[in-house]
Design brief:
Radius of gyration: 21 Å
CATH class: Alpha Beta
Order of helices and strands: HHHEEEEHEHHEHEHHEHHEEH
CATH architecture: 3-Layer(aba) Sandwich
Number of helices: 12
Protein name: Acetylxylan esterase
Keywords: Hydrolase, Serine esterase, Signal
Helix content: 25-40%
Strand order of the largest sheet: 1-2-3-5-4-6-7-8-10-9
InterPro entries: AB_hydrolase_fold, GCE-like_dom
Pfam family, one: GCE_fung
């Protein structure tokens, strides 16, 4: 039976991601038996038990594997960085906060790139403030609004005594497979585009967060030692990799970050490595494509990512209606990954045996998790629960 021309046309207009979601597995009985790499066995087969061996041997091994096979590099080299305050937009909260629109200019090998960072500082309080930086992967508002309060609740954060900042991902690398190079890759790091483990969009966004931290460290009103990095979805994947590269973040929060972020790749539940690489080929290193449909051949999995952040605090969150991100896989990844905190750094951390038994947020020293009702989003409920964890760990 031949489909009518109109039906064929409509099928071609369905987004690839939507078609992929229809093909994804949501049946727990079809999840493969999990055989995961051991974080505590080195590439030479040696069992890692001490903090010294972890930090000098196994942690660098795991980092190099993630860098080469999954995320790609975040280059560290540049000749110069400078900061300039702009005055282009009206402060939406003049009674609550002081707005700084910061142009960060970085120079390398005769080229320069300028990114924009928006920072709000409490107006009615004195001293230096803890800071929350949100990686914002969402497009800039066409009408010029600086804040989407449903996503970035600036007034509430200011009232609670935080300085808070954000940058749009497109200020360094557009979230577009055809245009992601139109930023720091073209201007500052063109050689990265020729490498199988070269920087892609996530690396560029992480680089931007690190340049933001450079600004915070020299700011007299910010206590950079109490800085929190937050990302949702693709921003959450970026936040985890950024913090693995940069130890200056005291707390890292990945909200509903799913495949390539919090969730275990080997579960092949919801979004998979093949789906994500096909739909978003500009996010991860080219090498990651080798594992399309072959997740079990990876020498790492996402439960090994928290160990790159330890002993600093890490927080995951899921939504029950967001099966695409595999909430159970996110939880298991953190539960297994938290062994670095217990076995290497001697922290007392306990998780429920069964994911299905979770009825309330799990807030412990350095490691936290919650799952809420609802769909894929960074909601005020997520922020409110996470801020309770921050108060205990910052």
């Amino acid at each position: 039976m031949k489909l009518p021309f109109l039906s064929i046309l409509l099928l071609t207009l369905i987004p690839i991601s939507m078609q992929a979601q229809n093909k994804a597995n949501y049946d727990e009985s079809k999840v493969p038996a999990l055989v995961l790499p051991d974080p505590f066995v080195s590439e030479k087969g040696e069992v890692i038990r001490s903090k010294e061996d972890w930090e000098k041997v196994r942690k660098p091994e795991i980092f190099k594997l993630f860098e080469r096979e999954v995320y790609g590099q975040i280059p560290r080299d540049f000749e110069d960085i400078s900061f300039a305050l702009a005055q282009e937009n009206e402060n939406p909260y003049p009674d609550l906060a002081r707005l700084e629109e910061v142009d960060i200019t970085v120079r390398r090998q005769g080229q320069s790139h300028t990114m924009r960072l928006n920072l709000f500082l409490p107006k009615k309080k004195s001293g230096s403030f803890p800071l929350i930086l949100l990686i914002n992967h969402r497009p800039m508002d066409p009408e010029g609004s600086l804040v989407d309060e449903a996503f970035w609740p600036v007034p509430e954060l200011i009232k609670r005594g935080f300085a808070t900042a954000s940058f749009h991902a497109e200020t360094v690398s557009p979230d577009d497979a055809d245009r992601y190079q139109e930023g720091i890759l073209n201007t500052l790091y063109p050689e990265q585009m020729e490498m199988a483990d070269g920087m892609k969009a996530f690396g560029a966004w992480g680089w931007a967060a690190m340049r933001g931290m450079d600004y915070f460290e020299q700011h007299e009103k910010i206590n950079a030692a109490k800085s929190v990095l937050v990302g949702h979805s693709r921003g959450g994947k970026t936040a985890l990799w950024t913090s693995a590269n940069d130890p200056r973040w005291a707390i890292t929060y990945a909200n509903e970050s799913g495949c390539g972020g919090a969730a275990l790749s080997r579960r092949k539940f919801g979004e998979t490595v093949e789906i994500i690489n096909s739909s978003f080929p500009h996010w991860f290193a080219d090498n990651f494509r080798k594992y399309n449909g072959r997740e079990e051949s990876l020498l790492i999995d996402q439960h090994m990512l928290p160990g790159l952040i330890a002993p600093r605090a890490v927080y995951y969150a899921s939504a029950k209606g967001d099966q695409w991100a595999d909430p159970k896989g996110e939880f298991l990844s953190l539960k297994l990954g938290s062994r670095v905190y217990t076995d290497i750094y001697g922290q007392k951390i306990q998780f429920p045996e069964a994911f299905e038994s979770i009825t309330s947020p799990i807030h412990q020293k350095s490691v936290g998790y919650h799952i809420r009702e609802g769909e894929h989003d960074l909601s005020w409920t997520d922020w409110e629960i996470f801020l309770e964890f921050v108060e205990k760990n910052l």
